[in-house]
Amino acid sequence: RQTRAAARHREPGARAQRIAVSLLGTLNDITDEAVVLASEVCRTRTMHEVVRHDACVSLAQLGQRDPRVRPEATRILLDVVQEVDAGSYLRTELLYQLAGFGPAADTVAVLARLLQDREVFIRRAVAGALAEFGEAARPALADLDAAADDSDAEVRASVQRAIERIGGSAGQ
């Protein structure tokens, strides 16, 4: 007997769409059409959740491999991460993908705001990404200091690690 979630991943139409959008992220020759398709599917809130997830990951992969694609991919992924209805699974995955782009100022600003997210997995991923950014995450210090007393022990530990890697606290 299949669980409902497992059945959603195996819907015939969604399965073909997943394969198609997943392949976009593996293209050797990155075309404008591939970027547009991955972007459109990633942004479409009514798209099947796993198809949308795979399109967003493909867009991130394209952005990581092609600096020309990175600004648009970053903008779209940041928009999706901030959607309340995007689901914590998609949002968490995109935080890891964005961390791979490096500490752009707009990324740090969005991540700093997400330290107050209602989802503990989001707060954990954000604190971890900011720790990876090190000194470049200095603009997030005030938000990290505010998150130092988070209700989740893992978030608190990641926040402390981020503050240490940045080299101080907002009060310094």
Your description of this structure?
- The protein is mainly alpha-helical.
- Helices cover 68% and strands 0% of the residues.
- It has 10 helices and no strands.
- It has helices at 4-9, 12-24, 32-43, 49-65, 70-81, 88-99, 105-114, 120-133, 141-147, 153-166.
- Helix 4 packs parallel to helix 6.
- It is globular.
- The termini are far apart.
Furnish the topology, listing elements before pairings.
Elements (H helix, E strand, L loop, with lengths): L3 H6 L2 H13 L7 H12 L5 H17 L4 H12 L6 H12 L5 H10 L5 H14 L7 H7 L5 H14 L6
Would you kindly provide a brief summary of this structure?
This protein is mostly helical. Helices cover 68% and strands 0% of the residues.
Q: What are the salient characteristics of this protein?
A:
about 170 residues, mainly alpha
Count of separate DSSP helical elements: 10
| Category from helices, strands and their pairing | mainly alpha
Q: Overall mean pLDDT score? A: 88
Helix content: 55-70%
| Largest beta-sheet details | none
